[in-house]
Each structure stands twice: as C-alpha cells, then as structure tokens.
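DOMAIN: structural biology
WANTED: fold as tokens
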Amino acid sequence: QSSGSGARAEYKGGSRHSMKSFEQSHLLIGFRAPSYRDPGFYAAQVLSGVVGGGMSSRLFQEARENRGLCYSIYSSAWGLGDTGMLAIHAATGTDMMSELINVVDAELAAMAATAVPEREIARAKAQLKAGLLMGLEAFDHDGSYIRVHRRVGVHLLVLLLGGWNEQLVRVHVHDRHSGAGDAPQCCNGQA
C-alpha cells in the first residue's frame, strides 16, 4: 500500500525536459515492474542485469563500447510494496542523445523479440549473487562494524527466510512472457 492511504501506487509515463544549460544530457527511461512481493520480481532483477547490469550488459556493450555514446549506462530494478520500476540511465553529449535513444530502443526491442541466451541469464544471476554477498562487506566511513552487522542481519533474512537465492535460481530463459511488468520480456520466474 502507498503512504498508508490504502491507495495502490499507479505508474504513469511521461516526459520531462529541462532547458537549463548542462555539459551532458541525461536519459532516464522507466517501466512499471513487479513489487518485491510479486514472484516476477526476481525475473525483473535478472532482466535488469542483462540489459544494463555492468560492463558485460547489452547496453554497456552497444552504447558505450561499440558506439562511444556515453561513459556510463546502466539499469536498475526497484521493487516496492505495491509496485516497482525498471529504469535505464545514461548521460551523454546533447548532440548524441537521439542516437543513444535509438540504440536503447533497438536493444529493448531485440530483447522483447527473441529469447535471451542462457549465458546472459547466468551472468546476470551470478552478478546479482556476487553483489549481494559483496554488499555484506561494506564498512562505515570510520571502519566500524556496526553497519556491517546490521546489513548482515537484513541480508541474511532476505537470503535465508525469503528464499532469495532459490527464487533467483528459478528464473530461466523464456521468449516473451515474464513477470517483469511493462519492461521487455525475456525470462520468467517459473521452475
């Protein structure tokens, strides 16, 4: 539920532009995605990893490495209590924005049209697991372990009680149907 009001959050698309002078133009594209309570949440996490989760991701390879359109491009999937969002972010020169949008659009269309190879799904899963485990090692700026113990407690609850790893393992290649909300669909959470 949203804000204690009992009303369910509703995703509304749109466009926002700023005419201020910046050195770079920023692109942020968002799609409705599953709540963390939805079984499709895990597929959305994997999808985000495939599309923009690191240097091996499709968008990083095509937009940055192959075309030199941006320094950084990534995606993230956020799950909230009643909804979620899959977002893609990149910053580029103003003169390259149209080409960057076309590249992102083409990559998303390709993912929606064909099954993602199992090696990409496996890479995204491994990256998600590694990120969670490495996150347990973070320290406060003064080197104290207080934050670490708090994180360990929260993350172990997610891992052990929530069955996070087991749910992630169930995500597999699927051609067009997933629980990933409005995002391009490439995988699902079915066993």
User: Anything to note?
Assistant: The chain has a mean pLDDT of 77. The first strand starts at residue 25 and ends at 33.
